[in-house]
Amino acid sequence: MQRTLVLLKPDTVQRSLIGTLVSRFEQKGLKIAGLKMMNMTPALCDEHYSHMTSKPFYPAILSFMTCGPIVAIAIEGHDAVSVVRKMCGLTAESEWVSGTIRGDYARSIDNNLIHSSDSEETAKVEVARFFQDNELFTYTRSLNS
Ligand code: CMP
């Protein structure tokens, strides 16, 4: 069982797509282990995108990710990192495929709705970056149908 981090970016909140996107993961059978709305501070953004701070488009990322609340979600499931990443879709607009979240809803590379961890190692770091231990929940779904 793996956990991965998803961030619903400010455009997801602005476009009232939180429920739609959370629902996709629930309908896939993935489990929500943690979920919270929060503001991404510039410091947190610098840390989260530390591999991109030297890119020419980083100021746009920083401005966008701090322009309004985001929703952080820890998602759990078999092979969750790769399953969630595939569900989100690729970064480049030319590679968006219908049936993926970005393919179905995103409007541009800058307003691409969602972030997900890109590897198991990154996922561990990213989940810990956004969630304290007592904000992550372990439970069975005995009422599942
Ligand atoms: P994300 O998958 O969250 O990771 C980094 C983000 O940088 C990416 O989504 C895009 O929203 C943003 N970005 C903006 N311009 C580019 C670009 N030219 N190449 C890659 N990412 C970009």
Strand content: 15-25%
Bound molecules: adenosine-3',5'-cyclic-monophosphate
* Number of helical segments with 4 or more residues: 7
Q: Low-confidence spans: pLDDT under 50, at least 5 residues?
A: none
Which CATH architecture?
2-Layer Sandwich
- The third-level CATH topology is Alpha-Beta Plaits
Please list the strands of the largest sheet in the order they lie side by side.
2-3-1-4
Topology as a string of helices (H) and strands (E):
EHHEHHEHHEH
CATH superfamily, by name, is: Nucleoside diphosphate kinase-like domain
- Strand count: 4
Cα radius of gyration in angstroms: 15 Å
- The N- and C-terminal alpha carbons lie at a distance of 20 Å
> How would you characterize the largest beta sheet?
4 strands, antiparallel
How confident is the prediction overall: mean pLDDT?
96
- Please identify the oligomeric state: single chain
Q: How many independent structural domains?
A: 1
Mind telling me the CATH class?
Alpha Beta
**What's the shape?**
globular
> Helix- and strand-based class?
alpha+beta
